[in-house]
Structure formats: C-alpha cells, structure tokens
Amino acid sequence: MESMVNKSFWIDRPTFVTGGTGLLGSWLVKKLLELKADVVCLVRDWVPQSELVLSKTIEKVKIVRGDIRDETLLERVLGEYEIDTVFHLAAQTIVTIANRNPISTLETNIQGTWALLEACRRSPTVKQIIIASSDKAYGEQGVLPYDENTPLQGRHPYDVSKSCADLISQMYAYTFNLPVVITRCGNLYGGGDLNWNRIVPGTIRSVLKGENPIIRSDGTLVRDYFYVEDAVLAYIMLAEKLAEDRKLTGEAFNFSNEEPLSVLEITERILRLMKSELKPVILNEVCYEIPKQYLNAKKAREILGWKPIYSLDEGLTLTIKWYKKMGCINERNFKL
C-alpha cells in the first residue's frame, strides 16, 4: 500500500478535510497524519464513537467547529491555515434519512459543495480539491457497469443531491479552472461505520449480539462493496496525480473492487467469516432503491495506476476485527 503513495508530497502539507468524523474521513485523517501532513478538520457535530475520536487521532489535528454551508467560515479556514489540498467528504449519507427529510440532505450535500468550492475559488493557496461524489450520482441506468461517461441522473433525494454536487464540482472546474477532481466510489465499508442500518455494520453487530441479521430490502439489490482503506489510498493518490498533472482538472474517477454482490450474498459472506449459523431476516420494506448498481474502474486503473489492495474477504475480516475489539474494550461509548 505504501509503495503507491508519495510520502514526501505530504510532509507538512496544509490539508483541509471536511467530514473528518465520518467513516472515510476518520481513516483518511489517520493516514494523512502517518504521512506527516498538517491536517485541519471541519467538524459540525461531536461524535464520541467516531474512529477519529476513539483512536485519539482528533487530538493530533487542528479542529474548526462549524457547518459546511458557512462559506465565510470556509474562506477564513482556507486563508488562515494556508490550505494547499482539500478533501471534501462532508455529507448527509444515509438514504433513508434523505427520503424522510430531503431538505437537510439537499442543503448539506449541494449547498455545502458550492460553499466550499466558492471559498476555494477565492483562496489562492488551494492547489488540489478532491470531491467525494458517489455511484448514486448515476441514478438508475439500463447499462451496467457504470463508467464515467454514464449520465448523472439521480431521481430520489440522496441520489439527486450527489448528482447535483457532482455537476456543480464540474462547473467550477470547467468554468473557473478550479483544480477539482471527483471520486465516485461503491458502497464504502470498514471499521468505524456507526450507521447500523447499513448492511455490513448492521450484520456484524447482529452477530455479536447473537441476533439474526436484518435485511430491510428483499435481499436482491446488487451493489459494489469497497473497503475504506482502499478508498483512502485512492483519494491520496488522486491528490498527488492532480498536483502532477493539472489536465486532470474536472475529471471523475470510479473506484471499485468490481465484484458486485447482492445484499443477501454480502450478508452470507459476513456470516461465514464470523462462523455464525444465524439466518438473515428479510423484511422487504425498502422503497426507492435502485435494483442493480455497480461500477467499472478501468479509468482509474489505466490513468492513475490505481488498484485495490484488499480483497472483499480481507476487508470484511479487518472490519469484523474492528467491531469485535471496540465492542469489548469500550462498551460505554460503543453501544452494541
């Protein structure tokens, strides 16, 4: 993994991360600190169970408290800390919450993106901006797998928020020549995901509690499952490549293991790895979900020289290990 990263690039580099307490943000900040970057994080809510907090990584970075929609605050941070590289991960990421309360999702994901990019446009020190879009930005398509030329056509609240944020990011790149590159990842999983209605952490927690895992859909939905440490490497490589070649400005890259599985298949894989004889309970109560959605990552392989390090079983094994450890040593803060 380390051989794919230019360590000298990151030493003392002023780097701004939004969404640092989330699943991807926690692991990205940890890796940036290992690379000796000078990291500033924007934090809205205090999440004591976050990997960023539990690992005490948060004590090693500069913290700015505030909302991603606050353009004045963002411009102050970028200017005062002389930020060079920006990773924009802050978002409302839960589909069910977006369906119940679309306004908070639209405001955070769309307005938050343009506020950050406008602040970057006014900040001359910023040289690389990596924007987290999603495979959900593509919406439902008739041709699979999706490549980067697939139209962005979300139809439901979360998907639309990612389509819009993605297009806004492209607008700032092409209209204002802002050094923006966009990532579109499959379903991220890994230790530290506290959204129990997601299938990977939810299934692991159920097994640790001795309960049958719950599948809220009919079990046939097909998705990519992408390990968080592979995603971290992808983001770091992308920033380095953009610094080398400004021609990447405005480009989007899919990142995926290219091993699509149904919800039932990923659940059964976790049960097998945990040596559990529990059986999933299929509720079949989910609505507004795309039946099949998975990515082609050829562009990232060919242009960036990127490839995933972890197989699905390796990523799931590391994830299971994280939840077992946290459930045992920190029961007060980590409610299984």
UniProtKB/TrEMBL annotation:
> By its UniProt entry, which SUPFAM superfamilies does this protein fall under?
NAD(P)-binding Rossmann-fold domains
Spans through the membrane = none
NAD(P)-binding domain residues: 16-317
Q: Which InterPro entries match?
A: NAD(P)-bd_dom, NAD(P)-bd_dom_sf
Query: What Pfam families does this protein map onto?
Result: GDP_Man_Dehyd (PF16363)
Tell me what this protein is called.
CDP-glucose 4,6-dehydratase
Q: Which organism is it from?
A: Thermodesulfovibrio yellowstonii (strain ATCC 51303 / DSM 11347 / YP87)
